[in-house]
Amino acid sequence: MFRRFLYNGDMPPTGLVWSDDYLRHDTGPHHPERPARLEAVHEGLTRSGLLNRCQVITPSPVDLKLVERVHATEYISQFRNACKLGQHTLNTPDCAICPASFEIACLAAGGTVAAVDAVMAGEVRNAFCPVRPPGHHAERRAAMGFCFFNNIAIAAEHLRTRWGLRRIALLDWDVHHGNGTQHHFDQDPDTLFISLHQHPYTLFPGTGFEEERGVGNVINLPIVPGSGDDEYRRAFEETVLPATTAFKPEFILGDVGFDAHYRDPLAQLELTTDMFGWIAEKVRALADSLCAGRLVTVLEGGYDLAAIAECTQAHVESLTADHA
Fold it and tell me: Phi/psi of residue 268, each to 5°?
């Protein structure tokens, strides 16, 4: 579906993780997290011409030893066996599976690992990973909220074990709180976790209150329903950007949800498409100034097909700025 772009300039291009196999995670015809989401992403990147400005990164399945740094071995076995037995859900009705789901979840986590490797090796400047299934709700011992393996947490663990990095910032701007990511890192002072999300009193998963601080390394910014661009811009300018700057990360990982868009059916925030471009621009500039541009973003939510296509364009446009 994607073709590889050969870059001839001085600055490495933005990387884009892709495998047609991500479409094989079949959640059923009425599930919000469906293959059509990635088909919309591809169409938007093709139509905008952004596809030709990116370097495709082909993923491989993640090493399960790395997954075991984030998830319990018994949970990994439960997931694999449920798929082999042809079960339709794992742990909760919203986590729909098919026989290929374990394999594709391994490929999704492997995609984020491949992206951080490409950035660390200097092959790409930064990277976007439109993978599925998503990951930030996955807990150590349970699937949750469409998520099975915590892709971004696995990528962070890989940065430490493979590349020896210590200080990693994880920024999450999905409309739902990244509970699995927070719970994995909330006792780790060398990791900064910041989440902007609709207020937990009003939206799944019901976590992410301001008083959840970990060991001082967790910042939750709950946003009340009906809020839009102004509230997000203020949160970034007053909290996210200065807190990340003060932390001085060696790498920034971003969990990107486009479900705070005003057209999304699963939440009640009012962000415009342009705001997602603005966020990506600010985070990219932050990475450029703090950690030599080391930035990988990973797709989480976004369930209106037109909105996810538009927001992906805005996001990737900001990541590729100054590349052309």
Answer: -130, 40
Clarify whether 137 is annotated catalytic. yes
324: its two tokens: 């052309």
What is the enclosing helix (H) or strand (E) of 153? helix 151-163
- CA distance readout (Å), 113 to 17, 63, 66: 10, 10, 10
How far is 66 from 43, CA to CA, in rounded Å? 33
Per the CB < 8 A criterion, the answer to whether 114 and 36 are in contact is no
Select which of 25, 71, 137, 184 is catalytic.
Answer: 137
DSSP per-residue codes, 12-40: --EEEE--GGGGG----TT-SS-THHHHH
Parse the chain into domains and list their residue ranges. Answer: 14-320
User: Over its length of 324 residues, how does the chain's per-residue pLDDT go in tens digits?
Assistant: 333 334 445 679 999 999 999 999 999 989 999 999 999 999 999 999 999 999 999 999 999 999 999 999 999 999 999 999 999 999 999 999 999 999 999 999 999 999 999 999 999 999 999 999 999 999 999 999 999 999 999 999 999 999 999 999 999 999 999 999 999 999 999 999 999 999 999 999 999 999 999 999 999 999 999 999 999 999 999 999 999 999 999 999 999 999 999 999 999 999 999 999 999 999 999 999 999 999 999 999 999 999 999 999 999 999 999 744
Contacts of 228 (CB under 8 A, 6+ apart): 262, 269, 270, 271, 272, 275
Contact 13, 56 (CB under 8 A): no
CA distance 199 to 210: 10
Cβ density class 265-302: b for 16+ within 10 Å, e for less: ebbbbbbbbebbbbbbbbbbebbeebbebbbbbbbbbb
Q: Which CATH number fits domain 14-320: 2.60.40.10, 3.40.1280.10, 3.40.800.20, 3.40.47.40?
A: 3.40.800.20
